[in-house]
């Protein structure tokens, strides 16, 4: 006698596995393709951000952690809402009826991610060059290299005509090239719809006070 229970082993749901894996794989492939189209001029530019002025160590810590905290909170809210929606749907309609809705929501989410990648690529690839400007270095800090970045110097600038300072990364440059109160040249390019990218280069070192001027060498 044969064991009918052993012969009736459940088959893997290949269709469900494909719907779960193929959309995010397609998004990752799109991201890699867009990165491959980035030219050297774009790769050499870094985002120009408005600097947040702080007066206490606590404000400095919050300014540094705020992007991560906001991203984490948003992700937790989205995941929590999705879990609640799926649990309520399964309770009222059962999983067989909820599965197409979950798959559809997953595909829509991946399409939104792909659309966001395309919009970001079009915004940056359609950038327009702006006139070079000179600014004064307010602060500079060293950025250590990581697996994804070569590091460099984070330069904080005060530009004429702008109330708030700006900062950007001088990739691969030592912080000693940008001493405070020195003058730098900022070349920026504005995105098609939003954002600025640029590169910064030193122009002149701050003038030494009279007392710090080295004495002339005597001939005697």
From TrEMBL:
It comes from the Bacteria. The chain crosses the membrane at residues 16-34, 68-86, 98-119. Keywords: Membrane, Transmembrane, Transmembrane helix. This is Uncharacterized protein. It comes from Ottowia flava. The lineage of its organism: Bacteria, Pseudomonadati, Pseudomonadota, Betaproteobacteria, Burkholderiales.
């Amino acid at each position: 006698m044969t064991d009918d229970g052993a012969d009736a082993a459940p088959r893997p749901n290949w269709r469900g596995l494909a719907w779960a894996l193929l959309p995010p794989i397609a998004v990752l492939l799109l991201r890699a393709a867009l990165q491959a189209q980035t030219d050297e001029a774009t790769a050499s530019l870094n985002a120009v951000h408005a600097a947040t002025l702080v007066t206490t160590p606590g404000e400095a810590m919050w300014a540094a952690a705020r992007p991560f905290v906001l991203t984490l909170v948003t992700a937790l809210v989205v995941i929590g809402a999705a879990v609640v929606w799926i649990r309520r749907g399964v309770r009222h309609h059962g999983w067989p009826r909820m599965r197409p809705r979950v798959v559809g929501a997953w595909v829509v989410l991946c399409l939104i991610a792909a659309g966001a990648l395309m919009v970001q690529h079009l915004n940056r690839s359609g950038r327009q060059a702006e006139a070079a400007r000179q600014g004064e270095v307010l602060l500079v800090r060293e950025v250590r290299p990581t697996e994804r970045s070569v590091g460099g110097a984070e330069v904080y600038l005060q530009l004429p005509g702008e109330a708030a300072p700006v900062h950007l990364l001088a990739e691969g440059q030592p912080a000693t090239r940008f001493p405070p109160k020195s003058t730098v040249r900022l070349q920026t390019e504005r995105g098609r719809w939003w954002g600025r990218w640029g590169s910064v280069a030193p122009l002149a070192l701050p003038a030494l006070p009279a007392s710090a001027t080295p004495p002339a060498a005597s001939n005697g």
